[in-house]
Amino acid sequence: DDNNDPMEIDGSIMQAPSLYGNNNRWLQGHLEYLRDTYNEEHDLDDSEFQKKFVDIIPSNWTVCSLTMYPNTNELSIVRLQAETTPTIIKLSLQRTRRSHNNTSENTMDFVGAIDELKQIISESDKTISTAKFYTEKTAVNEWWKRRMQLDHQLKRLLNTIETEWLGGFKGLLCGNYHEDIEGLRKFQRKLNQLLHNFVYGLPPNSNREKSQKMIDINLNMCRVFLRLGPDPSNRELDDIIYFLLSCYESQGVDIDYNRADIVQLKNQLKGEINRYHETALIKNIDTMTRKQNDHVILIPDNHLHPIPWESLPIMRSQPVSRLPCLSFLRDRIMRSLAANDDDDNWTEVSINSKKTCYVLNPSGDLMHTQNEFETAFKNMDGWQGLIQEKPVELQWQNMLESRDLYMYFGHSAGQSIIRGQNIKKLKHCPVAILMGCSSGTLVDKGEYDADGYIINYLLGGSPAVVANLWDVTDKSIDQLTGKMFNTWGLLKNNNNNTNNNVSLVEAVSSSRDACTLPYLIGAAPIIYGIPVYIKRS
């Protein structure tokens, strides 16, 4: 009720927002900059796009844009890193696995994958809605058996998407790993030499015929191949080889696959990949370990947002978040730079953990969740919240504008507490953790961008929003939430004047296996936004 008077809030709490810095005189200039930037976006050429969108990305971040073409069953991946030319690959989902005996194997198409995902979630919803009717021990065991079957089915589906859709190119979705730069350049030379020998039957040299085209595989593509690890599968090697040979074919070079010894080339490629990793280990470089504070941001299109990409095997151990578009990422980067009066040096976004507000079990029927967190929340210095009580909208709107972190533990995403149109208007929008069922679901709008309640937080300027892609059970999601809080350091003594070096994104990714059902429940939470750290004060 907008006519109600705002609740009284302690004056020490109603202070200038600290999320992006305490002095917000920069904000007007920043907003004017964004207005001008949005107006000129459609006129940018390649070099201007690189400067305004790509080169501003922090060096420890990797951005991957995913676009699906359902009519042709093709997946386009664009990989972006600062000071690096974008890597663009279009993969046919119907590409066949060709082998030396000319056998072929079709991959799962897009519609088939989405239909199976919907079927898994639908069956999960049925088990959740009927759980209260299972009281006998035998029936309860059967209920858990069905839930575990769905968990395994979802895991298999995600494995299939990685194996058949991404194949030898799954490294495109990886971030920054420790590398042996000398070994990397040597691998590049050997790979180019192997290909040239295979195509022309002799090593590349200055005396080769001018008609012999030389395809140079760049270092970024070499990194993608090396992310397969020291023992890539035959399917992954086939994927790489036929892609590389197609590069020569696209330049008019004829390749006789009937006479070509693909098996030998595959063994040679596998040997060079293994040699790179083994040589690096001798130099005490662990090439399978990602760099500290490494982060991947996905930008899935309207067709791909329902898929829990973050739980693909190649990504599950990585800190991964997502955003609806590259402009949203640009906005958050530029906002942080402007707030810190520094146009060049990136400073990680951090929150004051004392400036937390929460709504816990507003409907009164999530007693397990309340019992799990009530005591801890009440003991935290500076926190304000409501338990088994729904706030008045205007009161909570004022509360959100004074806080760095907002947590909601109720049904759905809290739409009944504050309307989306008012979230978008907040002068200061906090990080949001919305642990209700399907709180992160986006609704398809046909030719327009998919929409959902959490988008309001992003439009309002929130750095990050945690939400669930589908319905979850309270006890299981509470397991993940508790592990996430502990990993992030949220429930630690917030009088400690040290910075926690684990982001909220990493805390979520490292907590998925804390659930009894690591995929049916553990894959549901995703984060829209950028990494956010806890700052003690």
UniProtKB/TrEMBL annotation:
GO cellular component, one term: mitotic spindle
Pfam families: Separin_C
Entry EC number(s): 3.4.22.49
Annotated GO biological process: meiotic chromosome separation; proteolysis
Occurrences of domain Peptidase C50 (ranges): 353-448
InterPro entries: Peptidase_C50, SEPARIN_core_dom
Catalysis performed (reactions): All bonds known to be hydrolyzed by this endopeptidase have arginine in P1 and an acidic residue in P4. P6 is often occupied by an acidic residue or by a hydroxy-amino-acid residue, the phosphorylation of which enhances cleavage
Enzymatic class: hydrolase
Molecular-function GO term, any one: cysteine-type endopeptidase activity
Keywords annotated in UniProt: Chromosome partition, Hydrolase
Xref: PANTHER family: EXTRA SPINDLE POLES 1-RELATED, SEPARIN
The protein's name in its UniProt record: separase
